[in-house]
Design a protein that fits this description.
145 residues; alpha/beta; Rossmann fold; 5 strands; 22% strand; binds adenosine-5'-triphosphate; binds magnesium ion
Length: 145
């Protein structure tokens, strides 16, 4: 039932809490975890607006390098537990990419944090988690902050 898990992460504290949950899913029959980070196209566009082309490429590569390092750390942690891991990094709109990867990877369930980097106290669900719950084809496990 939970054979292939999609774990989208923005590397926030809440997503790390969701990762703790993913780590325990081997007991629920999980064999493979797809770890996904989406670099927000909008953030890149803002950077592009305020920097020269050369600076932009530098910043873009730095963002991607940081993301790859974080993804490698997460992948190592999961592989250490004996789970197969596939890592994906995409650029675009997070929800759209999460839905695309769900379809492409034959995912059984998505594990996501209720909130992410913004983590506004008054808000019940982040915008990414809310849209993923609305649009996902399969079940979504929401790990609360
Ligand atoms: N860029 C991203 N790439 C992959 N997963 C993401 C990304 N952004 C959010 N997520 C996932 O969605 C969860 C909820 O984050 P979300 O962005 O909805 O909350 P927020 O940052 O508190 O609110 P908002 O972004 O609406 O201001 C995260 O814990 C993470 O699992
Ligand atoms: Mg967010």
């Amino acid at each position: 039932m939970f054979e292939t898990i999609l774990f989208p992460t923005d590397f926030s504290d809440v997503a790390e809490k969701a990762l703790d949950f993913v780590k325990r899913m081997k007991d629920a029959g999980t064999k493979k975890v797809v770890v996904l980070h989406v670099i927000k196209k909008q953030s890149l566009e803002v950077i592009a607006q305020y920097s020269s082309i050369r600076d932009f490429h530098e910043v873009e590569q730095e963002i991607e390098g940081d993301a790859r390092r974080e993804l490698r750390r997460i992948a190592d942690e999961l592989r250490g537990l004996g789970v197969e891991v596939s890592v994906r990094i995409e650029t675009g709109f997070p929800v759209r990419e999460i839905m695309r990867v769900e379809a492409e990877e034959g995912v059984s369930a998505i594990v996501i944090g209720s909130h992410g980097l913004s983590n506004v106290k008054e808000i019940l669900l982040g915008s990414v988690s809310e849209s993923v719950i609305r649009k996902a084809v399969g079940p979504v496990l929401v790990v609360k902050r």
